[in-house]
Design brief:
Structural class of chain A: mainly beta
CATH class of the domain at 546-665 in chain B: Mainly Alpha
Mean pLDDT of chain A: 87
CATH topology of the domain at 546-665 in chain B: Cytochrome Bc1 Complex, Chain D, domain 2
Number of domains of chain A: 1
CATH architecture of chain A: 7 Propeller
Low-confidence stretches of chain B: 667-678
Shape of chain A: globular
CATH topology of chain A: Methylamine Dehydrogenase, Chain H
Structural class of chain B: alpha+beta
Number of strands of chain B: 32
Strand content of chain A: over 45%
Distance between the termini of chain A: 60 Å
Largest sheet of chain A: 6 strands, antiparallel
CATH superfamily of chain A: YVTN repeat-like/Quinoprotein amine dehydrogenase
Radius of gyration of chain A: 21 Å
Number of helices of chain A: 2
CATH superfamily of the domain at 546-665 in chain B: Cytochrome c-like domain
CATH architecture of the domain at 546-665 in chain B: Orthogonal Bundle
Strand order of the largest sheet of chain A: 22-23-24-25-26-27
Largest sheet of chain B: 4 strands, antiparallel
Oligomer: heterodimer
Largest interface: A-B, 30 and 31 residues
Radius of gyration of chain B: 26 Å
Shape of chain B: globular
Chain lengths: 386, 678
């Protein structure tokens, strides 16, 4: 009887949410079609609407240029992208591709890379060394020389290095066998798994740091916060458990299956396969494709730059400051696409020609006026529209 | 008659007793000496062991002495003073060059290594290799005003072009500390080769060059490579990691004043070919690396050796202000090599790349640019030129003396006694022997060459045993070996006397064996203790971290994590008990290779084991982890297969924390004392 009552209550909650979603969808249908615009990437943003006015506070990128194997990428499957000064580092299925002086150069296991499947790249601001997470270990690339750390020759937890993050002298990795911390000065490793940290299982997907804390995206374990000062853990899990819906809005991280974390401007952003969360140190806020401008709830990765977070999903790239959203989507049957600007209930579409190269996005990085996006069909480079 | 009887009777009794007891005593003494030396030919000299091998007590104090052992030095801007780093004296000696005597002694840290002066000449920065810090010495008051924390084993030091930053090569932790002099804080550490030693800023002050002593980790058989690390002085980032092939022990580097060349001493070992090569010459060659300072500049190697004479262990280099001459200290043969740099420039200019490659192994090429060899006292190390370039000062390391050489006449014009012990003890004589190549065929190398700092060089050698090409051998450290017989990986030598006796000459030096006097001296040096440096990196004060404690529990455990008892033979602590972490017995740990003769291997001691990669008898394990992850699958080398990765890491952290037993008894206050930055 209790179960039936709980089921009825749950159904009521779900139904009470849906009408709102429908309204939004109706509004979207009224938006002008992309075909109404011609090469609108080449024109400045109009400022006639309130949406666009809001969007002025949010960067919007256009003039997209896409790179695939035809342009010199070793593989169209790009897993990660990182801007490093005048060059861009792209992790692909077939090696590390470096874009410099308008040319691509590929580094593989023949050059010393641990594995050709490069899924994460970060650059140490302290030393300039590039740390490369691969499907076969962690590689340090320093002034042309590759050094590999794997689970056999070092204290690396596991060779599946999904994410690497440089935090001063410390290198953090999220691996298939737990999160790892490497102190580059002592050469010592720490491993954090369900055995010594509040994790559900050792599988970790993402890691980032900020404000003297480290945030680990642990599969099924939500976000694990590690305080560098106290050496203690705290976990943030979904109060609703594994439910694929967010039963109680903004009560915590939206789901325990987290994929990435990013801390910037005193805000922690967390991506999951079921939506995104924002945490200001006191309150959580959840975002879904149904109640925000988020492209999809299935989020592979996110990266915050200043107050803006860029969100990589299976159906486009989104960016937001928490209020206004800019989502980039490619049309199915052409190279064109659009930027969808959403503020509250208002939406506006800016046609883009060309658009990003694919809607399955796995990596992103922004610096100054440039945005790079790693997709399953090459990488895309966008410029800030003035 | 009665008067004579009083004398004759005792004499007669003594003679009779002597005749009765001589033979059995001699037989007993022979057996005793044979047993203690594991040889049958060592003279019955009681003093050999009972005097010279005493490590402590009154006898030890009587037979041994304290030395300064000058290692590096600098000259004041006006040329009036020499600042001499006294490695064993733990002091900076201030020498008045006019009065030719020591005027001040400034106590610095443990085992000081190098020195750099500030531009105004008022401050000296002295790296303390065994204290992990740099002493800041005020040269007006001759006091230590500050102590700057560095990485592990600070060696070479240099100042940035603007004088605001101090670069320190950390020889143990293999990185470079960048220290902000205004705050005394370490700004960053940059990974720098393997055991970096020499640091110099180039002529225009834009780049910092760091030389390495040890090679980068490569499997046996690969061409060895030693890294020259180049750092942008402004950005303080590594801009190039240049591999110098087939070379190592690149101790120092110096630039020509015009900035066209950088020159560094180096050694070229042929460790991949059987050591039979020794008697053919060319087993160990000694030379210089010349780094062209231009875009796409090459690194050219030239030998300082001659066809029948080698100049072992090149250490330091100094270039005259006019850029015409370079001086290289050949520490293993007690001489300074004088180089005509213009002749080198000409040689390089007229040679093709292919020709230059052949010169890297050309024993005769030195005749094109070597002007002279100048004899020095024992074991010349650091060099410094007077500001006018007319005098070369040489730190005669094992002579406690500074040699003064005229760079014009190329003659030694005098020496300055630093005031150390005036006598040469037996152990000191042994140390000189260990550092000298005079006992090796054509002076190719000294014991020190493969055992720098009485440690090991990190190389694996193809020893010339009766079956050529078999028994690949990982060089072992000499530190603490006096207490950890037997010797060699196959344990065939039970004592140092046997290890360094006749067989040593037939296998390793290919010349006459050490005299018994020399053998006693060598044994005295080795047996009375070659200590490990303190393990400041992993165990600075004896207090283990939580991870190390967990690792210790695993090391000492009797039951695995499933509750089953581990057979005694498979417990770590069985074969590796404290204090040296060896039971001094032979063991089969499942590492026998097809090319090995012996089934059993000597159990190595583990003190400071973190500093001795690669591991296992043939160096197959590049890291401690690999001993078990790649080469410990049978559990013969300890029961570890039930360990999680976290637990294996903890075990390895504990192993890295093992240190010399000497430091277990020392007050932790002494070790802590050298860390304070004011």
């Amino acid at each position: 009887m209790v179960i039936i009552l709980a089921g009825i209550a749950l159904a009521g909650l779900i139904l009470s949410k849906k009408p709102g979603h429908s309204e939004k969808n109706t509004k979207r249908d009224n938006l002008p079609a992309a075909s109404d615009y011609q090469n609108s990437s080449d024109v400045d943003l109009p400022n006639s609407s309130g949406v666009i006015k809001e969007a002025k506070a949010m960067p919007v990128y256009g003039h997209w240029r896409n790179f695939t194997t035809k342009d010199g990428l070793p593989s169209d499957k790009a897993y990660t992208v990182r801007i490093d000064g005048d060059r861009v580092l792209v992790g692909t299925h077939d090696g590390l591709a470096v874009y410099e002086n308008e040319k691509w150069h590929t580094y593989t296991t023949k050059d010393g890379l641990a594995h050709n499947g490069v899924v994460s790249v970060d650059v140490s601001e302290l030393t300039g060394d590039v740390w490369i997470g691969t499907l076969g270990g962690l590689t340090r690339w320093s002034s042309g020389k590759f050094t590999t750390f794997n689970q056999f020759n070092s204290g690396l937890p596991n060779d599946l290095v999904y994410c690497v993050y440089c935090d001063g002298k410390d290198i953090w990795v999220a691996t298939g066998g737990g999160a790892g911390h490497y102190d580059t000065q002592t050469g010592l490793w720490d491993i954090f798994t369900e055995q010594n940290a509040p994790m559900h299982e050792p599988w970790t997907y993402g890691v980032s740091a900020g404000g003297s804390k480290v945030y680990i995206a642990a599969w099924g374990g939500g976000v694990i916060e590690y305080d560098n000062k106290t050496k203690r853990f705290r976990d943030y899990t979904d109060p609703d458990g594994f439910m694929e819906i967010d039963l109680q809005p903004d009560d915590g991280v939206v789901h325990d299956i987290t994929t990435a974390t990013s801390y910037n401007d005193s805000i922690l952003w967390v991506s999951t396969y079921f939506g995104m969360s924002r945490y200001d140190g006191k309150n959580w806020k959840g975002y879904f494709n149904t109640d925000s401008g988020l492209a999809s709830n299935f989020i592979n990765f996110l990266r915050a730059e200043g107050r803006v977070v860029f969100v990589c999903s299976d159906n486009g790239l989104s960016s937001t400051d928490g209020t206004t959203w800019v989502t980039y989507k490619k049309d199915d049957n052409s190279e064109n696409g659009k930027a969808i600007i959403t503020t509250g209930n208002e939406k506006k579409e800016i046609p883009l020609s060309p658009s990003i190269s694919h809607n399955f996005i796995i990596g992103v990085d922004a610096k100054d006026d440039i945005l790079w996006v790693a997709t399953s069909k090459g990488v895309s480079r966008g410029e800030l529209l003035k | 008659m009665r008067k004579y009887l009083k004398i004759l009777l005792p004499v007669g009794v003594i003679c009779i007793l002597g005749a009765i007891f001589y033979s059995p005593y001699h037989t007993w003494a022979r057996k005793h000496v044979n047993l203690m030396t594991a040889t049958e030919d060592h003279p019955l000299n009681c003093a050999s062991c009972h005097l010279y091998l005493q490590k402590s007590g009154v006898i030890s104090k009587l037979v041994n002495a304290h030395y300064y052992s000058p290692f590096n030095l600098a000259v004041s801007n006006d040329g009036r003073y020499l600042y001499v780093v006294a490695e064993e004296g733990n002091t900076l000696l201030v020498v008045d060059t006019k009065k030719q005597k020591v005027t001040h002694k400034v106590e610095v840290g443990n085992r000081p290594h190098s020195i750099i002066l500030s531009k105004d000449g008022n401050t000296a920065y002295v790296s303390n290799q065994w204290s992990d810090n740099v002493s800041v010495v005020d040269l007006t008051s001759f006091t230590v005003t500050d102590t700057l924390k560095t990485g592990g084993g600070p060696a070479g030091v240099a100042l940035s072009a603007d004088g605001k930053y101090l670069y320190v090569a950390n020889s143990f932790s293999s990185d470079l500390s960048v220290i902000d002099i205004s705050t005394g804080a370490e700004r960053k550490r940059l990974n720098a080769g393997n055991s970096p030693a020499g640091v110099q800023i180039n002529a225009d002050g834009s780049l910092v060059f760091v030389t390495s002593r040890r090679t980068l980790s490569k499997p046996f058989g690969d061409t060895i490579r030693c890294e020259l690390t180049i750092i942008n002085d402004n950005k303080q980032r590594v801009v190039e990691r240049r591999d110098v092939k087939s070379a190592y022990i690149m101790e120092n580097i110096s630039f020509t004043p015009s900035g066209d060349l950088a020159i560094m001493p180096l050694v070229r070992p042929k460790n991949n070919v059987p050591t039979i090569q020794i008697e053919r010459g060319w087993m160990m060659t000694n030379g210089i690396g010349i780094v062209e300072q231009k875009p796409s500049g090459r690194t050219i190697q030239l030998l300082l050796d001659e066809p029948n004479a080698y100049y072992a262990d090149p250490f330091d280099i100094a270039i005259t202000p006019d850029g015409k001459r370079a001086f290289v200290s050949n520490a293993g043969v007690d001489c300074i090599t004088v180089i005509d740099i213009d002749a080198i420039r000409k040689l390089i200019a007229e040679s093709t790349n292919e020709t230059l490659k052949t010169y890297a192994n050309h024993l005769g090429i030195s005749s094109r640019f070597v002007l002279k060899r100048i004899r020095t006292g024992a074991n010349p190390k650091g060099l410094a030129l007077s500001p006018d370039g007319k005098k070369l000062y040489v730190a005669e390391h094992l002579e406690d003396r500074i040699a003064v050489i005229s760079t014009e006449s190329l003659e030694t014009t005098g020496t300055i006694d630093l005031g150390g012990s005036g006598r040469i003890t037996v152990a000191r004589h042994g140390r000189r022997l260990l550092n000298n190549a005079g006992h090796t065929f054509q002076n190719q190398y000294s014991c020190y060459t493969c055992h720098p700092d009485a440690h090991e060089d990190g190389l694996v050698y193809n020893m010339a045993s009766k079956d050529m090409g078999r028994n690949i051998t990982n060089t072992q450290s000499l530190r603490n070996i006096g207490d950890t017989p037997p010797y060699k990986w196959n344990g065939k030598n039970q004592t140092v006397y046997k290890q360094d006796g006749m067989r040593f000459s037939t296998v390793l030096t290919r010349t006459e064996a050490f005299s018994y006097r020399d053998l006693d001296a060598l044994a005295a040096y080795i047996m009375t203790g070659i200590p490990n440096p303190p393990n400041l990196q992993y165990n600075p004060n004896g207090e283990l971290t939580e991870s190390q404690k967990h690792g210790k529990a695993i090391f000492e455990r009797t039951h695995n994590f499933k509750g089953y008892e581990i057979p005694i033979v498979n417990r770590c602590v069985t074969c590796h008990p404290a204090p040296y972490y060896t039971n001094k017995k032979m063991a089969d740990v499942g590492t026998l290779a097809a090319s090995d003769d012996s089934i059993l291997f000597d159990t190595p001691h583990l003190n400071n084991i973190f500093a001795s990669p690669p591991y296992l008898h043939d160096g197959r394990a590049a890291s401690l982890e690999e001993i078990w992850t790649l080469y410990g699958k049978t559990e013969q080398h300890g029961s570890v297969n039930d360990l999680t990765k976290i637990q294996l890491n903890e075990l390895i952290e504990y192993l890295k924390a093992l240190r010399d037993p000497e430091y277990e008894q020392k007050s932790t206050e002494i070790l802590h004392a050298s860390f304070g930055h004011k």
